[in-house]
Amino acid sequence: MEGALPASLLLLLSMILDSGALVAAPALHCFLQGPREDMNCTWSPERELIMDGTYTLHFRSMKYTPGTLVAKVPFLHGQHWVLVPRRNWTHSDQYHVWVEGPANDSNMSLGCWNMSTEDIEKWNLLELNVTLSDASSSEVIVTWKHYKQSRVQLRYRELGTKNWTWVNEEDIEPNCYEFTHLEAFTEYEVQILHILQNGKREWSLPAVFQTHAAAPVGLVDLWWYLDKGHPNLTVLWKALEPKAARDHNVTYTVSYRKGDAHGSSSGSIEASCCNTILPHNVEHIDILPANSQGKGQTTSLSLQHNGIVFL
Q1: Mean pLDDT in the chain?
Q2: Is the peptide bond before 274 cis (omega within 30 degrees of 0)?
């Protein structure tokens, strides 16, 4: 609800270690998320599971259906949250919860604790607003509603990657943060964690955005050959990778200089990708990539001292 503080934090539960596989015992915080009331459980990112592989969070009923395993939720090393679907838990039930490590030792339990869903309340998750500057700048500003007497932690990552980057808290304003160093034409995911004075924690919904396009960077891979029996030279090149192209549409200008007994002349051809036909007496080739934001770097090739390849 607009203007309302989030509901109180629900659970602060410590793991009971029996294997030494955790650096320390992290507190677990669970809340109900969205209209379906799936249960989102998070723990402090400063407390890391140190083994690579897939972990599993298990829930076993202790009240209504004692001993029944009601949920097994997998999560990866480096992940600091799990989402338990609403169909896998019951209001007012009590649960025994534990974590098992990677499948190479399925009997190894990393920790366990008990919890009651009566202590879990629904949170109104914060929404983030993302504003991109004009196309000539790489600045991206993320804003959110600020609660008094609270701290904010912010993390971001390239969409689809595993690891998050955490921003230094001293660089974050109470209700905004400005990115100035992101890669051009790249999708990012950003999320904040509000930590209130009484220790309550509230995650925002992740916000996804794409940075502006920019002029291409990097050189193209270029090669050529002569068809035996044909008076032409075929030039081929490899399209720039998306991170180098930095836009959806890239064109390539192929400039060349040819020479014969009567002297030399030059010409150019614009192509989308990734080959063109030139006269057989070409002595020098340049390929220049360009997109809507500008031109990239020129790749040059001299054929005057190259051997001729016949295919």
Answers
A1: 78
A2: yes
